[in-house]
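Q: Okay, next protein. This is Acyl-CoA dehydrogenase family protein from Streptomyces ochraceiscleroticus. I've checked the sequence twice, so it should be correct. Can you predict the 3D structure?
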Amino acid sequence: MSTAAHTDWQHRPAPATSGAWVDRAAEVAAVLATDAAARDRAGATPYDEVQLLKDSGLVTLLGPVEHGGGGQDWPTAYRVVREVAKADGSIGQLLGYHYLWNWAARLVGTREQWEHVEAEAARNRWFFGGAVNPRDNDVVVRDEGDTLTFTGRKSFSTGSRVSDVTVLEGVLEGSVGPDNPEGDHVFAIVPSDSAGLTFHDDWDNIGQRLTESGSVTIDGVRVPWSAAAGYVDKSFQRRVYNTLNVPTIQLVFAHFYLGIAAGALETAGTYTRTKARSWLHGGHERAVDEPYVIDTYGDLTAKLWAAEALADQVAEEGWALHSDPDAVTERDRGEHEVRVAAVKARATDVALEVANRIFEVTGARSTATSEGLDRFWRNIRTHTLHDPVAYKRREVGRFVLTGELPEPTWYS
């Protein structure tokens, strides 16, 4: 991957509008697309790819303008993730997770905490990773007076070795009880090279190969109490807005699924136009004139456009909640989660269908490893197993039939 053609990014003014930021993301995607299949096969740690995100300014998209950030909103961030994911699903995921963890201080922390984090992140172009796999509950946070120590292990830590800072999460020792079965969770941001933080090179899945999502060991990583997000005098300041992290990250998922699907359709379309052969018994000289080929592209594109439109609409609805955090009610949050669940369900189904059916209109030779068309399906299939889509449909169905709102959990 060569970034030489875009070294002038750092000497050009930052984009000033949402559309200009999406255009910048398209420039980044064009660089990533040049060797996406080869990089997927190599599976190397994506240091250069993350540097590309930094050089282009995309990592600072949500940061405050006065500190060098883009000052943009979440609907723009989702569109940027989708654009990058067209070229490389792994890098789209890394960027989307980065945006969430960058914003996490605002979701969970006090104003003083998140203003400090966002200023430092924008000035230094931090890239965020997160050791916050909710199904691993073995990270213990011990109160040691003025400091806290995190100790345990997480199965997944997306962004691990390419991150500058990592969000840690664990349960405060002694906080679990009959009235508090889940205990008090503590989030803190630490440098990724902190003593006691060991990232393991054990991510070996069929898709999203460049996301650095391997396991991590956390051995007595020390932070001051002042870094415990949302805690004041060792007491967590609860707001409904704290629970908006799940619908926000689930929308990140949906958008990079749709981005990968769009990339699959674009790549397949180029192959059909330039390499695919018409069927010898079909009576057409070109593959692009085959009625079944035309119909398939029309069908898949219509489904993708519909899913993208829904995803964009729900992103705007979510931004209304982010814009006034203190006003978010439980009903606001619950209804938004139902809408997000619907987006996640449709994005999953449409993306899987697109990535599977493109082979029907590209032909047998398109399955060559050198073409790399399989990476789109592998990437979507891998991440859509993050949590069962049936439970997303259940949230929607229960709301429609009974008005029931989903309770905030790590997955809803």
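A: Here is a summary of the prediction. The chain has three domains: 4-127, 130-236, 240-402. Strands lie at 128-131, 140-143, 147-154, 165-172, 185-191, 197-199, 216-224, 231-232, 235-236.
Q: Noted. On to the next one.
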